[in-house]
Amino acid sequence: MFTSRGPGFRRLAQSHAGGTAGDTLVAMALGSTLFFSVPSTEARENVALYLIITLAPFALIGPFLGGLFARFPSAYRGGLVASSALRAVAAVVMSIWLDTVLLFPIAFILLALSRFHGISRSSVVPVVLDDPRDLIAGNAQLARVGVVASALIIPTGLLGVGFGHPSITLLMAAVVYVWSALSAFGLPPVRIAVERGKEARQVRKRAAAPREVRLARFATAGVRFLNGFLLLLVAFAFRDEDAGFLDFSALLAAAGLGYFIAAFVTPILDRKISEEPMVVTGLAIEAGAAFVAAQVFGLPAAAFLAAAAGFAWGTAKFGFDGLLQATVPEGGRGRAFTNAETFFQMAWVVGALIPVASVIPVGLGLTMAGLTALVIQVVYISAVMVPVVRHRRSVAAAAPEREPPEGSVLDLM
């Protein structure tokens, strides 16, 4: 399946599959512990505390990881191995202290290590691909691998949660993380030249994310913000109606399906349009789905919304990753991806906290989400168009003045 892209990509895909499957099992164990086994009010408190704990320290870890990759730009393979191995240890520890106050700091450690793995993976993709023009297709293929791995592991997780105990599911996650670490250990060494002195300063200057990447990061964070808001809004709407674990599983499956479809569609879009319209497409789809679901909310509409949100996130994220990988030099990708992932995580948490902190009618919340997506679209498109307009004006100003031809539109003014 991956031989056409080389042994390095194959190992990277295997490590990504193991990491994604392990994260899925951890999410199932936490969901059954924090969300389903307690009353609604306590569930809100648990989720809010979890979100706050993951938000505050992550802002500190992001710059640390950025500095680490900037100083040791060839440490991506080590980051993949260490993040998976440490997640295996953390999952075992969490299974022991699952019902104690230590659950939250351990959950934060798992989240941070998962982001560490994702940043390392994204940074190494351009290096292991034989064709540097194949970035979006390579990212999309990794996404498909992750979705398939999650789908295959869900029945096992359901058995652990439903017929055993969440701690059993966490032990299963530890085993999968170990496999992810072993796969990453077999990755060929990644060699990235480290410039020194004046050349190093020039590389760091070029490594700063260009304007188009910063704008795409803002718009992609908007998609991530809306995903966090919609997920918790719908989750508590269903929770208050005593929906079961299978209903929530259906929503997660729909979101995964939407992301999976995006992994097939995005490479096709890449041959037709540039990366920026992909981000706009994600926002447009999310806005439309939110407006539709607001009119006929129920399990089918919620599943449609979840699938659209997954598709929107996949389309926007693949477009952003491809843009960053194509425009930022190798030595600066680690820092650039760290900053972006930190920004996306904070956007998701802020969006998720809104429906957790206050009870919002689901119809009103969905309409608000649709309007927010439209506003982000307008701001992003306007900002992207500013340099184009300025360039055209400068060209027009530099061109010699000419008399308008007879019968032109100026004759009508």
Care to describe what's here?
By secondary structure, the protein is mainly α. It folds into two domains: 1-191, Growth Hormone, Chain: A (Up-down Bundle), CATH 1.20.1250.20; 208-388, MFS general substrate transporter like domains (Growth Hormone, Chain: A, Up-down Bundle). It is built from 13 helices and no strands. Helix 3 (76-96) runs antiparallel to helix 6, helix 5 (135-163) crosses helix 11 (299-327) and helix 7 (197-207) runs parallel beside helix 12 (330-357). Residues 193-207, 388-392 and 407-413 have low confidence and may be disordered.
How does CATH name the architecture of the largest domain?
Up-down Bundle
Question: Main sheet, how many strands, which sense, barrel?
Answer: none
Total count of strands = 0
* Ends apart, CA distance between termini: 64 Å
- CATH topology type of the largest domain: Growth Hormone, Chain: A
Tell me the number of helical segments per DSSP (H or I, 4 or more residues long): 13
CATH superfamily of the largest domain: MFS general substrate transporter like domains
Structural class by helix and strand composition:
mainly alpha
